[in-house]
Amino acid sequence: MLALLTRDLVLATRAGGGFGLAVAFFLILCALVPFGVGPQTAALRPIAPGMLWIGALLACLLSLDRIFALDHEDGSLDLLATAPVPLEGVVAVKAIAHWITTGLPLVAAAPLFGVLLHLPGAATPWLIASLLVGTPALSMLGAFGAALTVGLRRGGLLLSLLVLPLYIPTLIFGTDIVRRAAAGGDPATPMLFLAGITALVVALMPFAAAAALRVNLR
Amino acid sequence: MLALLTRDLVLATRAGGGFGLAVAFFLILCALVPFGVGPQTAALRPIAPGMLWIGALLACLLSLDRIFALDHEDGSLDLLATAPVPLEGVVAVKAIAHWITTGLPLVAAAPLFGVLLHLPGAATPWLIASLLVGTPALSMLGAFGAALTVGLRRGGLLLSLLVLPLYIPTLIFGTDIVRRAAAGGDPATPMLFLAGITALVVALMPFAAAAALRVNLR
Amino acid sequence: MTLLSVHDLAVARGGIRAVEGVGFSLSAGQALILRGPNGIGKTTLLRTIAGLQPPVAGQIAMPEDAAAYAAHADGLKLALTVAENLRFWARVFGGDDGGIGTALAAMDLAALADRPAGFLSAGQKRRLGLARLLVTGRRLWILDEPTVSLDGASVARFGAVIRAHLAQGGAALMATHLDLGLAEARVLDLTAFRAVPGRRAEPAGFNEAFA
Amino acid sequence: MTLLSVHDLAVARGGIRAVEGVGFSLSAGQALILRGPNGIGKTTLLRTIAGLQPPVAGQIAMPEDAAAYAAHADGLKLALTVAENLRFWARVFGGDDGGIGTALAAMDLAALADRPAGFLSAGQKRRLGLARLLVTGRRLWILDEPTVSLDGASVARFGAVIRAHLAQGGAALMATHLDLGLAEARVLDLTAFRAVPGRRAEPAGFNEAFA
Amino acid sequence: MIELGKYAGTVLTAYGVSGLLLAGIIWHSIAANARARRALEKQVKHG
Amino acid sequence: MSIWEYANPVKFMRLSGAILPWVAAAAAICTVGGLVWGFLTPQDYRQGSTVKIVFLHVPAAMMAINIWVMMLIASLIWLIRRHHVSALAAKAAAPVGAVMTLIALATGAIWGQPMWGTWWEWDPRLTSFLVLFLFYVGYIALWSAIDDADSAADLTGVLCLVGSVFALLSRYAVLFWNQGLHQGASLSVAPGERMSAVYRYPLYLSMLGFFLLFLALLLVRTRTEIRRRRLAALQAREMRT
Ligand code: HEM
Ligand SMILES: Nc1ncnc2c1ncn2[C@@H]1O[C@H](COP(=O)(O)OP(=O)(O)OP(=O)(O)O)[C@@H](O)[C@H]1O
Ligand SMILES: Nc1ncnc2c1ncn2[C@@H]1O[C@H](COP(=O)(O)OP(=O)(O)OP(=O)(O)O)[C@@H](O)[C@H]1O
Ligand SMILES: [Mg+2]
Ligand SMILES: [Mg+2]
């Protein structure tokens, strides 16, 4: 298991591995928003929480197909499925690796992007906290979607389509935390809900994803 | 050439071909925005033009890697490159097929999404016009990006990273058209610029894309 | 000691039975080669025995954690070096890193240990894929066309590795079209077991349930 | 009539010359088989002659629009039927749909014409890939390992197709490890042309420029 | 010490951040160069 | 002897090895000298001590653009004349350019806080710099994603060309989109609005320093790339035999 995690992380840092690409995508998206809605602070500030979360979500989404597709193509997944490790564990480890390579850098870079979109400074700690709590759920749900679509040629768009609705609760509570914090309110309640969702997803989704993977491997 | 176009369109409509997925993604994104920024008309109306254009752009982006990757994997691209058709023509046809399967449905569906985001009715014809004029440039630029990354394992995120900055001028003028129309202004000037960019891109990019493709095939 | 016994097995691909009524058993020190024309179901049979898909009917019995499977795709990461690739699989199979050197030497890869797998030629990649078997520590090898893209010298080397494995009490089940030079191996031709199409009491999938 | 003449050709893969000094010529009715160990550069040579990559040195002369290339990957669309796949390639090569029936019959695919290519077995897919050659109407066939994954009967059938092509004034250049049963074909072993590594005045790529 | 007025923090941060970035790229360049040279020497000696 | 002779890796290594210490020393002297001198300038009556940021901000901004132009030229040389060293020089320059862009952005942002009351403003000048940064990142990412050096050089060369066109296009689009807060070019030759000499001379020195610094880094990094290529070439040759 640990071997798998370290291998995935090493692969991510090797050439073409895609470490940091999610952050770059996030940056581009944040740069696009002002082009879309106009550069004025008054226009940007109210939508900043939503845009930051949508940006994180899309950056995460775009890298989902890496979770299993590469291992499926080169046969590693078949071999892992016949190796003495539970497939649920494999799924969980893959989701963790995805989170470390995309979610964690996003969390680290979020304050910067908050500045770009004129997020009030007081909301920044809450932005970080909400992403820290919420992005693991995004990775785990994404792993489930990736497991569903792993055999398909270019499942990318289909994968997005399947996973986006699953992301909605996380998105709602995540933005609500930041929005309340930006308005000077108390974000504790949505934070609780968000943590609950993440806990639920992390506890249950590995089993669903492993089941989907077994179907796709046979 | 025509044979290639019809084949690509037929493939798009067969199982897993991805026709309509872009529209579905666009729909989901438009549905996410109210969750992100709040459902009030006052919040949505000013950002509607930008969000619609950003949505179209992302929907287009997500399907870009289909342009060449499938044909590269199954060897069709090698065979096409040795067939009696110019590679520039192949690139152009591929971009046209991409536009018909993603850009055109988006144009058709845009009025509906305008309503979802409370775009003023007067701006809707301009939204359609701007998408009609602008999305061909998106497809052609995307074909260039896809040609650059075609040999890479999972170039998806890298492709987005390369292509998004190229989309910025189109996005700026596109949203400006809709924004001006929504504010009751005259969108003729940005429309002219947008048409100019599209003309430039469509005229020159096939050569750059074909050059990149040749490098990747050798 | 019996490492694998298969009884009245039927396997399906695309919802339709490919072969049925297959039965054989493999003891320590034995090798069995599956033969048959293209599309008969050799790959399907091997994947079923490896546990990647459920059998439609029949029994497969083998000791727990005995089998190692090697297919067309070698499961190599091109960005990792030869040694890193092997080390990963050794750890996944709970082995230590000690066996890696032996495995590399056995498949003549020692000189390439620090080279990224992406820089290997097709035959060298294949050799690395086969070296993986040695680090799994498993006794039953399930091999699908193991010598594809190997040249003559490498095929002979692989034959020697198989023989050593059998001598140490291992067993091997292989599907191949080519001659491996393993005179001691039994051969099972699957042509005789081709499934008769039609509706079944116990359908393999939609295609049989609605046939 | 000479369909292909190659003079003092050097080709490179991964920025390094693979073979150099290769020269031969093929007239109508002739076949040439390239041989050599794995990794010598057969595929690279064929791709260069097909025009997919530039030669490092030397000349390749052939009539315009004479060659058809067939590689490991068959360029099939799994969602299209057998006939649709062939029809597409016939149109790309400017032919009419009339030749499709002949091509299907020649490779024994007539019964499968309306089946999606995705439901074919590996050998059938390969046969379809070879049938494509017949609809291109090209006289010079450039074939890379054409009989991979074909069983014995199909190999014989393919031999017959090649012979018919030669008899009609065609020519064929093939790389293969296996015996195709084409006694009339000349054989060129590339081992003698293996490039000597080292820095060159006219480097093939970074790897030679900096060696 | 020279007088920076009420903008002392701003100026010092600007110089600090730029210094860090410059030091970073300089250090990276030199380290990578040394690594490449060592790797090449090792190859020439053993290879 | 033509300039192209130096594109030969061996000659380049010899020449660059000989001049590198001098360039590095000059870069250190000018950069440190310019910045220290700049730091000691008196406060501006309007901007207070924040004027001192200009000695970082303007040279970095200038180099950010110039390095991209240099990469464009090097890419063209590679694409047309196939001089391997110039492709490697373009690759070597990109991270330096990205850092320069980052310095311009960071110092600008820090400066913006007291001057405009905000860290970031979607001003056209600032925005085009962000776009330039994106192009640098994409260029670097493409280089590192492709295994084969020849393909990588060709493809990044094409990207650099297309990117240059679109960077220019974005600049005009952005100007159309938003009129900005940022000051115009006060170093322009037009008399009248010129920056006072107290600030101008240290600025010149600092600009020279940044340029020399870039040159030194470019030499070091190109030498690194050449060594890496040589190592890869030796390994590839060994592997083939
Ligand atoms: C992130 C933000 C910023 C960026 C990307 C940026 C970018 C640039 C660039 C590209 C130049 C070079 C212009 C040229 O040489 O023609 C420049 C010059 C300059 N910038 Fe900024 N800038 C930023 C913020 C600021 C701020 C906040 C101020 C001060 C209020 C400022 C003051 C100046 C000054 C005084 C010059 C020199 C103009 C001249 O003399 O040419 N900049 N900036
Ligand atoms: N995805 C699929 N859907 C439907 N049928 C399939 C699919 N894949 C394979 N088949 C069919 O299943 C049968 C068995 O295939 P299998 O791969 O097991 O054959 P094989 O004996 O391994 O052949 P080969 O010698 O080519 O390796 C074939 O007739 C094939 O047509
Ligand atoms: N992408 C690559 N990068 C570097 N070297 C490569 C690459 N692809 C192939 N090679 C090398 O190029 C050489 C020639 O390869 P080529 O595929 O032409 O060989 P071949 O004679 O066709 O072999 P086979 O019999 O396996 O088909 C091989 O030594 C191989 O290692
Ligand atoms: Mg098989
Ligand atoms: Mg070959």
Automatic annotation (TrEMBL), chains A, B:
Membrane topology: Multi-pass membrane protein
One matching Pfam family: CcmB
Parts of the chain that traverse the membrane: 15-38, 50-69, 96-119, 126-150, 156-178, 190-213
Keyword flag Transmembrane: yes
Keywords, comma-separated and alphabetical: Cell inner membrane, Cell membrane, Cytochrome c-type biogenesis, Membrane, Transmembrane, Transmembrane helix, Transport
The UniProt record lists the keyword Transmembrane: yes
Subcellular location: Cell inner membrane
Function: Required for the export of heme to the periplasm for the biogenesis of c-type cytochromes.
Similarity comment: family membership: Belongs to the CcmB/CycW/HelB family.
Name of the featured protein: Heme exporter protein B
Taxonomic lineage from the root: Bacteria, Pseudomonadati, Pseudomonadota, Alphaproteobacteria, Rhodobacterales
Originating gene: ccmB
TrEMBL record, chains C, D:
InterPro entries hit by this protein: AAA+_ATPase, ABC_transporter-like_ATP-bd, ABC_transporter-like_CS, ABC_transptr_haem_export_CcmA, P-loop_NTPase
Signal peptide (from-to): none
GO molecular function, one term: ATP binding
The organism of origin for this protein: Paracoccus stylophorae
Pfam families to which the protein is assigned, alphabetical: ABC_tran
Organism lineage: Bacteria, Pseudomonadati, Pseudomonadota, Alphaproteobacteria, Rhodobacterales
SMART domains tied to this protein: AAA
Gene coding for it: ccmA
UniProt keywords, alphabetically: ATP-binding, Cytochrome c-type biogenesis, Membrane, Nucleotide-binding, Translocase, Transport
Residue ranges annotated for the ABC transporter domain, each copy included: 4-209
Protein name (Swiss-Prot/TrEMBL): Heme ABC exporter ATP-binding protein CcmA
UniProtKB/TrEMBL annotation, chain E:
Localization in the cell: Cell inner membrane
Membrane topology: Single-pass membrane protein
Pfam families reported for this sequence: CcmD (PF04995)
Regions that span the bilayer: 12-32
Keywords (A to Z) from UniProt: Cell inner membrane, Cell membrane, Cytochrome c-type biogenesis, Membrane, Transmembrane, Transmembrane helix, Transport
Keyword Transmembrane helix assigned: yes
Function statement: Required for the export of heme to the periplasm for the biogenesis of c-type cytochromes.
Family recorded in the similarity comment: Belongs to the CcmD/CycX/HelD family.
Protein name: Heme exporter protein D
Species this protein is from: Paracoccus stylophorae
Gene this chain is encoded by: ccmD
TrEMBL record, chain F:
Compartments it resides in: Cell inner membrane; Membrane
Organism for this UniProt entry: Paracoccus stylophorae
Keyword field contains Transmembrane: yes
Family: Belongs to the CcmC/CycZ/HelC family.
Keywords, comma-separated and alphabetical: Cell inner membrane, Cell membrane, Cytochrome c-type biogenesis, Membrane, Transmembrane, Transmembrane helix, Transport
Record-annotated membrane-spanning stretches: 12-40, 60-80, 92-114, 126-146, 158-178, 198-220
Record protein name field: Heme exporter protein C
Known function: Required for the export of heme to the periplasm for the biogenesis of c-type cytochromes.
Pfam family, one: Cytochrom_C_asm
Keyword Transmembrane helix: yes
Domain of life: Bacteria
Topology within the bilayer: Multi-pass membrane protein
Residue span, Cytochrome c assembly protein domain: 4-182
